[in-house]
Amino acid sequence: MKRAAAAHGETGRMPEDANLRDLPAANFAGLPPAVRRKLMGRAAVRATLTLTVLTVAYFALPFTLISKASYLTAFLLGAAVVMVVLAVQARNILRSPYPRLRAVGALMTSGPLFIVLFAALHYLIAHVNPSSYTQPMTRLDALYFTVATFATVGYGDLSPVSQTARLAALVQMVCGLFLVGVIAKLLLSITQESRGRITPGPEAPSRSPRLRSSGERSR
Questions:
Q1: Percentage of the chain modeled with pLDDT above 70
Q2: Does the pTM exceed 0.70?
Q3: 43-198 maps to which CATH number?
Q4: Average pLDDT, the chain
Q5: N or C: less crowded end of the chain, CB within 10 Å?
Q6: What gap in Å lies between CA 190 and CA 96, rounded to an integer?
Q7: pLDDT value at 26 more than 80
Q8: What whole-number distance in Å separates Cα of residue 114 and Cα of residue 86?
Q9: Three-class SS string for the chain?
């Protein structure tokens, strides 16, 4: 970090080949455009790969092989995976030299994972009991219903009927509020805490000219 800071002081800007982990988060806006584009490009690629993997897994995995007695267990395991991912993302934010950028990437990862998890749950419920919803659902229908519920759109063309389906929709609504509110606030708090460790403290206020002039007259 000292070498990077020294180079910044001598040339007025960060070197193109500086180690990204040696650059403090407070200087992200002062990085060369090429370095900023590289960091944001990495975050965009990571989020795109995550979304692609989740989408392929949702449409390709054989969910129908899960029995009626074990689909709830599969959902709980998926929820545990979401919690682990959030914990890892929180740790990465604390360790990242650019916590705000990492927090945005964490939200772009946890959001699709949440959607896919509940879409799989709704699809399994409809597969076990097709009368659980107002009409039979394909995987795309389940994904559509999950996004519509999360976005609070409510077109009314597809809705839960059975007690199990309504309970799943209720859990999704509560978890959606938790995701949008509590998790977003938590990630923001972690970001601010991580940035606060780097930001220097305020300097001591200097005496105003009026106080200095009055002090000189008193002498």
A1: 68
A2: no
A3: 1.10.287.70
A4: 75
A5: C
A6: 11
A7: no
A8: 11
A9: CHHHHHHHHHHCCCCCCCCHHHCCHHHCCCCCHHHHHHHHHHHHHHHHHHHHHHHHHHHHCCHHHCCCCCHHHHHHHHHHHHHHHHHHHHHHHHHCCCHHHHHHHHHHHHHHHHHHHHHHHHHHHHHHCHHHECCCCCHHHHHHHHHHHHCCCCCCCCCECCHHHHHHHHHHHHHHHHHHHHHHHHHHHHHHHHHHCCCCCCCCCCCCHHHHHHHHHHC
Name every residue whose Cβ is closer than 8 Å to that of residue 90 and which is 6 or more positions away in sequence.
106, 186, 187, 190
Predicted pLDDT at 7: 44
In total, the chain counts a number of residues equal to 219
Indicate where the chain has its CATH 1.10.287.70 domain(s): 43-198
Q: Which two tokens stand for residue 99?
A: 């916590």
Record the tokens describing residue 26, joined without a space.
């407070």
Tell me the C-alpha distance between 195 and 81, whole Å.
28
Give the C-alpha separation, 143 to 62, whole Å.
16
What radius of gyration do the chain's Cα atoms show?
A: 25
Residue of 162, 181, 163, 161 whose CA lies nearest to 173: 181
- Token pair of 185 as six digits: 């606030």
* pLDDT number for residue 10: 42
> Would you state the structure tokens that stand for residue 103, as one six-digit string?
């927090």
Residue 1 has which token pair?
């970090």
